[in-house]
Amino acid sequence: MMRKIAFFDLDGTLCSGGDLPVSLEIKQAFQSMRENEIEPVIATGRSFYEVQHLLTFLEVENYILSNGCYVKFKGKLIQNATMSIVEIQHILAIANEYNIGTGFLTRTVLL
What is the pTM of this model? Predict the structure, then answer.
């Protein structure tokens, strides 16, 4: 049996504004896809905490977030990329040396 999957970007594709607004028609389209055995997948550079409300609104359980660092499909965690403290310290040292502002994201909060 062949499975069908449709991938959607957010910014400039499903959403036209910074706060990720989507219309009721998009929600209905996602429901229609599921009814027709098409798995909708959100693929974005944004992190989970930025899109959690949208995933809930669209009833999406399949997503590729943070440019592939956090991936779930049908409720199963596929990818959860992490960095060690040593890697973070190294990045911060380089950023500090070159006076570059640095931030790190986790699945739920901004550090």
Answer: 0.80
What tens digit of pLDDT does each residue of 36-63 get?
A: 999 999 999 998 988 999 999 999 999 9
Q: Please give the C-alpha separations between residue 59 and each of 29, 74, 76, 104, in angstroms, as whole numbers.
A: 11, 11, 15, 27
- Which domains are delineated in the chain? 4-81 (3.40.50.1000)
Residue with tokens 């973070």: 88
Length of the chain: 111
**Helix runs in 9-100, H state only:** 24-35, 48-58, 85-97
How many angstroms separate the CA atoms of 91 and 63, rounded?
27
